[in-house]
Amino acid sequence: MGGCCPPMDLLRSEPMQLVQLIVPIESAHLTVSYLGDLGLLQFKDLNADKSPFQRTYAAQIKKCGEMARKLRFFKDQMMKAGLTPSIKSISQVDINVDDLEIKLVELEAELVELNANGEKLQRAYSELMESKIVLQKVGEFFHAAQSRATARHREIESQSTGEESINTPLLRDQEMASDPSKQIKLGFLCGLVPRDKSIAFERILFRATRGNVFLRQVEVEEPVIDPASGEKVEKNVFLVFYSGERAKNKILKICEAFGANRYSFDEDLGRQTQVISEVTQSLTELKTTIDAGLLHRGNLLQTIGDQFEQWNQLVRKEKAIYHTLNMLSLDVTKKCLVGEGWCPVFATKKIQEVLQRAAFDSNAQVGAIIQVLHTKEMPPTFFRTNKFTSAFQEIVDAYGVARYQEANPGVYTIITFPFLFAVMFGDWGHGICLLLATLVFVLREKKLSGQKLGDITEMIFGGRYVILMMALFSIYTGLIYNEFFSVPFELFGPSAYACRDLDCKDAGTVGLIKVRDAYAFGVDPVWHGTRTELPFLNSLKMKLSILLGVAQMNLGIILSYFNANFFKNGLNIWFQFIPQMIFLNSLFGYLSLLIIVKWWTGSQADLYHIMIYMFLGPTEDLGENRLFPGQDRLQQVLLLLALVSVPWMLLPKPFLLKKQHEERHQGHSYAQLETTDESFFQLEQSHNSHGHEEFQFGEVFVHQLIHTIEFVLGAVSNTASYLRLWALSLAHSELSSVFYEKVLLLAWGFNNVIILVIGIIVFIAATVGVLLVMETLSAFLHALRLHWVEFQNKFYEGDGYKFFPFSFILLGDEDE
After folding, report:
1. Which of 258, 53, 35, 80 minimizes the C-alpha distance to 806?
2. What does the CA dihedral 133, 134, 140, 144 come to, rounded to 10 degrees?
3. Most exposed: 222, 261, 749, 805, by fewest CB within 10 Å?
4. Secondary structure of 545-558 as H, E, C letters
5. What SS3 class is residue 535?
6. Which residue has the higher pLDDT, 688 or 557?
């Protein structure tokens, strides 16, 4: 909007108007699309009483939602495959929504089929891999067991003699072979069980079969891919021998419960070799098939990724267009759509041009009509900001959006906010550090604006120009305070003071005499390090805080006059602005005058005594505390004016509002006699809704009483609140001094390189962590409070609502 709009004016929001659009149905879609590109019209929902399913374009929104779901599915698949969708589509291909819908259905079906086939193949591959491991491990067990049995048999035969011994088996093999009923037939099951369940698996098997099983487990060295979950799991190969069908059934159920995968095993050695060979060959073939499938899937996802951003933008635009069309109402003939919306006055001609272009491009027989509606509804607030002013406007909007066309504090915040921050953060060394850090964001803003940043980084980047101004003002106030990491420099000439004697080495100002003109700019460096430094700077900063606070509060009250004058509210001028100015300046304006006169004359008068006895003893003689002739009489007049201004604020306004209401009510009663029937009905309708509302005098009076008490007490508390400028400035200065003297200088005094390096590291860490991060945040929050409470409550209503035009640019930000 930057180049197409009239010059920016932030003082008051843009003049707005309510317009009505009558658009033929055949050109409605294109019209709304062009208005979204323009981004200067905020539509009103004329179908608020209808549910989303009862609206005209519910089916189209459902279709767009389905396409958006498919695109989200594609994005998830690309992220899993390690692909990132192109930010800008490689080839821009014109495609309409219907074609895109068909294409997305085909792509989704193909991708789902590829995924399903890939999962089946992967599961088969994993099962074959597990089967191969089981064949190898169980084969090794059987081979080892057979070798041991053969060796044992030979040993027994070699040791056997004609005589019976205690070790001779009671049953000979021949006897057992001759009696089949005496043979023991053992069955076995083998497979893989997760390692973390193996101990429980063994325990349950033992208990379920009462120990009538023989179990062996072998750990698999590397994790294997589980066929069911597709994840890598550490497993053990198990082999369990059992006797009887009941035991077998129990073991099968336990295996199923523990997720143990069972695989068949042939005891025949030759058959084992053949099976392993077949499994290995199948694995090779499956691996080739899986790789080909993954390559095809990757190519498909890459093709989708190249066009993803274009498709996504198209779907989001279509969905936004139909959402907006649903806010329009169908005309009685069902041939036109009627819509209402707010737009800036300057945008009327642009909207007319857009409507004409849409009608022409859609070959509509009738063009769209735009007409201005007159309404008493409060329009939205719209400020045209740029990248510099937007952050300052956001600070104001965080408190409350300005009422339509009331004075905007954002204009003054651009200067006052960073300045009050700098009063608390005054150190030109720290200001330079803050400036350098901010310049990184400012100089790289084009690159960073297109990147995804973290929450805190994004917040800092958004307020980079606020921080830039804060840094510049901190350098300025730091030069005034003459502090560079708490160290003073003679930047603007030599000090105005010198030692009285050549051997003068006092740590105070006792031996100093003024030898030249006052130091050109800021605090004379000779004050730093003296015994009187703290009392001097305390007095200076405290008085500066009061002067700045009274000045800013006066600015707020003056802005309330401009608001009242703009809205033609004479009561607020005579019974709010004038008494408030009198009350504030009779007390604290007078205090500011005394501070300036005391500085100018170099008087030793006690301002605390003057202000206290202005109330306790207004007729008493000031004596040595008199700063100028006629001060006693002036104080009495100012005190009287302050007392008079309180009832002036409180009493007249409620009575005058009641009188105005009665006159308006009486005027409406007489006006009805001269109206026609139709207008009489309309007027009576509005009269019943507004004119016959009783004037709640009690509520108005109580409201005015609260407002008066709030201002009178607030004048005192708000002035005291500005003393935070002095307190935080003092805290910042003292912390900086402590880090410099007790860390850096202390480390320097040891004449040890290691201690010096450690001291420098601690000094840098403390400066960055405490002074450049925590103190910055603290001063920022205090400056924010001074603007929101002490300044803005003097004039700012902040009960408006923002202008949110239908714009595809804003739509992209919201979706993200």
Report:
1. 35
2. 160
3. 222
4. HHHHHHHHHHHHHH
5. helix
6. 557
